[in-house]
Amino acid sequence: MNLKKIVLIPLVAAGMLAATQTAMATTFKMALGDAAGGTQWELGQKFKSAFEQKTGGKHKIDLFPNGQLGDEQNTVNNAALGTLDFSVLAINNVTPFSPTVGVLTLPYVIQSAEDAKKLTQGEVGKELTANTIRDAGVRIVGWAYSGFRVLTNSKKPVQNVADLKGMVIRVPKNEIMIATYQSWGINPTPMAWSETFTALQQHVVDGQDNPYITVSAMKFNEVQKYITNLRYLFSLEPLIVSEQVFQDQKPDVQKAILEAGKEATEQSFAYLQATEEKIKKDLVAKGMQISDPANGEKEFIQKATTAVWPKFYKSIGGKEKLDNVLKTLGR
Questions:
Q1: pLDDT in tens, 28-85
Q2: What is the rounded CA–CA span in Å between residue 166 and residue 190?
Q3: How far apart are CA 30 and CA 37, in angstroms?
């Protein structure tokens, strides 16, 4: 037998194997609505490192922050179509596609970070994940915890509902959030996230609401002066994967996605606990003024829960769904 042929066969086989492995390697794209440095970025970075480690570096994640791959609602559409792999976005931008998720955005349902963790990581979270697969063609595999959406504005301190009169407040294109502000006597301005900073800068709108971490990451201190510690909505930002993309993966890759999502979720909660107070102090040092609503926010709570909750019982799957959530929270 020719010695050259004996050597050549394993070399060719090895080359074919290497080519096959290279062809199987995948770089996934992850869209982030926020700029680098915020909660979404922290979740995405942790997911990326955990997923790449679990797949031995064969599969990678590229992050695209600050809406580079489209606004948040568009990323849900694209993920449903299988043209985008992953997205991290505010939960209110998932709600139009899977309305039952709206139970987590009803005003004053979540009243602490611990409430948020209990709901998202328990049976309620599992049910909502199943619903988003069914309704929207996307799967929630992780959660970012961003804290309560505080109100910022450029005009004056806000301590009661009357102080909102005459203000133009930007909100996402979300019916529950719009209805909440309407219950306080104003008509907010629905606006895409990508347009918000410029609108604040040019005084097209006077204010907006977002968590402290987002206010800092987006440098809203440059265009806003006052912060009010409203606690009507705890900002949850799910990490979604296209269900089509997920089902196309082999079982070991699916397992890596789910495990990396769990680790990123745990890291996000720890990140919020470790950074929020520091961010508050930093924003004050940069010139922002922070105040609390009068009378423990009672006026805001009474108006919002009375007017908004009943309006959305049907869309969240019935009043019993809200009752179950409140029971889970011991209320």
A1: 999 999 888 889 999 999 999 999 999 999 999 999 999 999 999 999 999 999 999 9
A2: 16
A3: 15
Spatial CA neighbour of 136 closest among 61, 48, 238, 34: 238
CA distance 211 to 327: 26
Q: How far apart are CA 267 and CA 311, in angstroms?
A: 35
Say if CB 10 and CB 231 are below 8 A apart: no
Cβ atoms of residues 43 and 88 within 8 Å: yes
Contact 224/205 with Cβ under 8 angstroms?
no
The answer to whether residues 98 and 177 touch, using CB atoms and an 8 Å cutoff, is no
Other CB atoms closer than 10 Å to residue 39's CB: what's the count?
Answer: 27
For the chain, give every domain's residue range. Answer: 26-313+322-328
Biggest alpha carbon–alpha carbon distance for the chain: 95
Task: State residue 19's pLDDT score.
Answer: 35
- In angstroms, what CA-CA distances link 173 with 90, 185, 188, 280, 328? 11, 18, 10, 27, 29
Candidates 159, 129, 271; CA nearest to 211 is 271
**215 vs 147: CA distance, rounded Å:** 11
The pair of three-digit structure tokens given for residue 307, joined into one six-digit string: 């007017």
Superfamily for 26-313+322-328?
A: Bacterial extracellular solute-binding protein, family 7 (3.40.190.170)
